[in-house]
């Protein structure tokens, strides 16, 4: 009776079990990929689609308003005027950047949705004609 050699790490796995592990992880990667939503035809609500850009726009608008208030405080308050003059424009620029990024993100999502609808329509046409 022949005893298989031990592996260097001390585990006693056969070469067949190692092959099974690699093939199992490959199928797991395919199952958990992000493109899974392309294959499912479940419709998503508007909030599910647009919640990230709406949050970015809201946070950007809030930071922009805080920057406006801080900048205007530098005009009215005499003490700590240099701090207000430095922090105000920083908040203004950060808020404006987030606001613009969110506002640009929305048309990009709309365009992707239209392309996805067209591709699903073409896929259904292909399956209709080729599966006869």
UniProtKB/TrEMBL annotation:
Membrane topology term: Multi-pass membrane protein
Name by which UniProt lists this protein: PIRT protein
PANTHER family: PHOSPHOINOSITIDE-INTERACTING PROTEIN, PHOSPHOINOSITIDE-INTERACTING PROTEIN FAMILY MEMBER
Localisation per UniProt entry: Membrane
Keyword check for Transmembrane: yes
Pfam family of the protein (one): PIRT
Ranges where the record places region Disordered: 1-22
Species name: Pampusana beccarii
Keyword Coiled coil found: no
InterPro entries listed in its UniProt record: PIRT
Keywords in alphabetical order: Membrane, Transmembrane, Transmembrane helix
Chain segments annotated as transmembrane: 54-78, 90-109
GO molecular function, one term: transmembrane transporter binding
